[in-house]
Amino acid sequence: MKRVVVTGLGAVTPVGNDIPTFWENLSNGVSGIGLIHHFDTADYKAKVAAEVKDFDITRYVDKMAAKRLDLFSQYAVSAAQQAMEDSGLACDPERLGVYIGSGIGGLSTMVREEEKLLKSGPHRVSPMTIPMMIANLAAGNVAIRFNAQGPCLPVVTACATGTNAIGEAYRTIAGGWADAILAGGTEASITTLGVAAFTACMALTQNDDPKTACRPFDKRRDGFVMGEGAGVLVLEEYEHAKARGAKIYAEVAGYGHTCDAHHVTAPDPEAKGASRSIHQALEQAGHAAGERVYYNAHGTSTPLNDASETLAVKLAFGEEEAHRIFISSTKSMTGHMLGAAGAVEAIASILALDNSLLPPTIGYGEPDPECDLDYIPNTARKAEIDLAVSASLGFGGHNACLAFRKVR
């Protein structure tokens, strides 16, 4: 198996549209959650979201080309461009891949074109509807932009999408099938239909105070806040990166993924599948007792998720060690970015490892007896760590986990 490292990072998020801004705001506990501005929420129970702000696609794509990209693809292309520029990667096109997924795809295009169909008839529907809407086109558009002719796999595993995309890219490079892969996730589902549908399935908070709407692991949590954006990493075979003198952020040391096979939306209350995915990543990373570990939690601020994830951590690490590791949910600041969440949280984990600074869980105030671990409440913490772990849990019972180390 070949070694795989991270040589480039790019992000478009509710707390910053580039890596320096994103990391500064996470480190300072700045929230990207506010009242929804994308549409009128007068008739909606859920009124807050973590929207991307001041996004300018023309920094990366000309106006005419941008009109042919749904917002989820725009976010992906922008984050990928940042990651490529950060990496300085030069690669044989046939050895360069793209693994960028989306949990939902071009929802805004689907909503807009459906409205045209109902109002004006089928002749008014855009010929670009399908290429803008289908979830694989974020990966397709990035591959076209960078002439990536190698493996291209747009993973779709709901909220675990970004983590699975990175993990599967890691396996592909480790197996020798590519030299480098742009990997991550993207989402743009803060739309009329997206918010209405997630509200209908009792997933979103109806708390309209942006300061308290998202409070992972807090006893008063009552649902997640939807976010949007994209995160993309350049994964590269270690010797390939070393030969060109690349900057290396971290090594991908482990990956696990499982399925609960339990329920379409609810996690398994016994957390067996989630704990196995974490254990798989830890085992592959060679985790040893006594190591200093940072765990970036899925931490959605829903009653079921946070309790079952706490149990999963205890099962995977053991009760005693679970109380020693550092845990935080950066969703407390970014909201739940759905298919992009795992990628953005992997970036946060890598930066925590690289900077010896662990981002906080903001909004935390009232402990829950079922969530009794160290969640780094409200203020970032300076700490040297040996291993950074990032976990994602998705509808359908998808569980995925990544482990990162500094290059030895």
Descriptive tags:
about 400 residues, Peroxisomal Thiolase, Chain A, domain 1, 2 domains, 9-stranded mixed sheet, two-stranded antiparallel ribbon, 13 strands
Outline the structure in words.
This protein is of the alpha+beta class. It folds into two domains: 4-243, Thiolase/Chalcone synthase (Peroxisomal Thiolase, Chain A, domain 1, 3-Layer(aba) Sandwich), CATH 3.40.47; 253-405, Thiolase/Chalcone synthase (Peroxisomal Thiolase, Chain A, domain 1). The chain is built from 14 helices and 13 strands. The strands form three sheets. It has a nine-stranded mixed β-sheet, with helices on both faces. A hairpin with a 3-residue loop joins strand 12 (387-394) and strand 13. Helix 7 packs across helix 14. The model has no long low-confidence stretch (mean pLDDT 97).
Question: What is the fold's blueprint, element by element?
Answer:
Blueprint: E1 4-12, H1 19-27, E2 34-35, E3 48-49, H2 63-66, H3 71-87, E4 96-101, H4 107-120, H5 129-133, H6 137-146, H7 161-174, E5 180-187, H8 192-200, E6 229-237, H9 238-243, E7 250-259, H10 272-284, E8 293-296, H11 303-317, H12 319-322, E9 326-328, H13 331-334, H14 341-355, E10 357-358, E11 381-382, E12 387-394, E13 398-405
Parallel strand pairs: 4-5, 8-9, 8-12
Antiparallel strand pairs: 1-6, 1-7, 2-3, 5-6, 7-13, 10-11, 12-13
Helix pairs in contact: 3-6, 7-14, 10-11
What is the gist of this entry?
The protein has 408 residues and is of the alpha+beta class.
